[in-house]
């Protein structure tokens, strides 16, 4: 009886997850276990394998890169006459942590997160992290071209008002500088790494507050990496939402 109930519950949950993914993103997943992993918060990590905790952090890393590349290409084609600074600013607005957190809640993806923390929503950035991890799972499961279609057709063009984003101005780097000056904290944005990938280069910037490293972020420009790192630092330090 126990085995029967376990199997029934297991497959019922998988069926519900498959249907949820279909309803939200418009496709049925192939390898459902990838998506289950994408929704497993680090607080609910499974036992270690070869020293690694099993949660969504590695998929989040991959999804961050895929999402950034897809959005960059979309904006490059959408705005053929705009300069690099404009494109970087627009991409930062779309893939920013606050933007992805709001998107994940709007889609209902945040409700599917498996976490040991059931009271405060798994942490301030868990929703956005899960979305990036989901993109990583999608990429492994379906490939880049399929992932690009899903991101553009079911996310960017549906849930973002690109014209309004052009005029939206949330510069977390400026806000961090204002905060540090007001509260008498030292603040630096250090370029700590340059990652070369064929014909492209990504820059890793670290936010340092009072000589303590707070967050890191990478982007295809130093300016973009600074803005993303500043936003992560703003969230991690628990400063007021913008």
How would you describe the overall organization of this protein?
This protein is of the alpha+beta class and 242 residues long. Helix content is 59%, strand content 15%. It contains 10 helices and 5 strands, in the order H-H-E-E-H-H-H-H-H-H-H-E-E-E-H. It has helices spanning 2-25, 32-38, 57-78, 84-95, 97-107, 126-142, 144-159, 162-167, 172-183, 222-236, and strands at 46-49, 52-54, 187-197, 200-209, 212-219. The strands form 2 sheets. A 3-stranded antiparallel beta sheet has the order 3-4-5. Strands 1-2 form a two-stranded antiparallel sheet. Strand 1 (46-49) and strand 2 form a beta hairpin. Helix 4 packs parallel to helix 10 (222-236) and helix 5 packs across helix 6 (126-142). It is globular. The model is unreliable at 1-10 (pLDDT under 50).
List keywords for this structure.
242 residues; alpha+beta; two-stranded antiparallel ribbon; three-stranded antiparallel β-sheet; 5 strands; single chain; 59% helix; 15% strand; 10 helices
What is the arithmetic mean of pLDDT?
85
Helix content range: 55-70%
Regions with pLDDT < 50 over 5+ consecutive residues? 1-10
Count the strands? Answer: 5
Shape: globular
Tally of separate helices: 10
Strand content: 5-15%
User: Structural class from helices and strands?
Assistant: alpha+beta
**Main beta-sheet annotation:** 3 strands, antiparallel
Radius of gyration: 19 Å
Helix and strand succession? HHEEHHHHHHHEEEH
Q: Give me the side-by-side strand order of the main sheet.
A: 3-4-5
Distance between the termini: 53 Å
């Amino acid at each position: 009886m126990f085995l029967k109930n376990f199997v029934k519950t297991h497959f019922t949950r998988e069926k519900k997850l498959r249907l949820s993914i279909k309803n939200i993103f418009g496709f049925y997943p192939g390898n459902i276990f990838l998506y289950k992993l994408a929704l497993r918060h680090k607080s609910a990590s499974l036992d270690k394998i070869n020293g690694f905790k099993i949660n969504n952090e590695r998929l989040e890393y991959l999804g961050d890169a895929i999402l950034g590349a897809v959005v960059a290409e979309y904006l490059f084609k959408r705005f053929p006459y705009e300069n690099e600074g404009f494109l970087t600013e627009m991409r930062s607005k779309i893939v920013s942590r606050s933007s992805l957190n709001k998107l994940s809640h709007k889609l209902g993806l945040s409700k599917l997160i498996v976490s040991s923390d059931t009271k405060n929503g798994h942490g301030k950035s868990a929703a956005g992290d899960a979305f990036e991890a989901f993109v990583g799972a999608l990429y492994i499961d379906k490939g880049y071209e399929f992932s690009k279609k899903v991101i553009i057709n079911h996310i960017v063009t549906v849930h973002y008002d690109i014209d309004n984003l052009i005029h939206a101005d949330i510069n977390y780097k400026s806000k961090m500088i204002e905060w540090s000056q007001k509260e008498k904290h030292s603040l630096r944005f250090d370029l700590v790494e340059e990652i070369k990938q064929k014909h492209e280069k990504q820059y890793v910037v670290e936010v340092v507050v009072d000589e303590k490293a707070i967050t890191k972020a990478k982007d295809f420009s130093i300016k973009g990496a600074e803005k993303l790192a500043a936003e992560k630092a703003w969230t991690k330090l628990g400063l007021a939402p913008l």
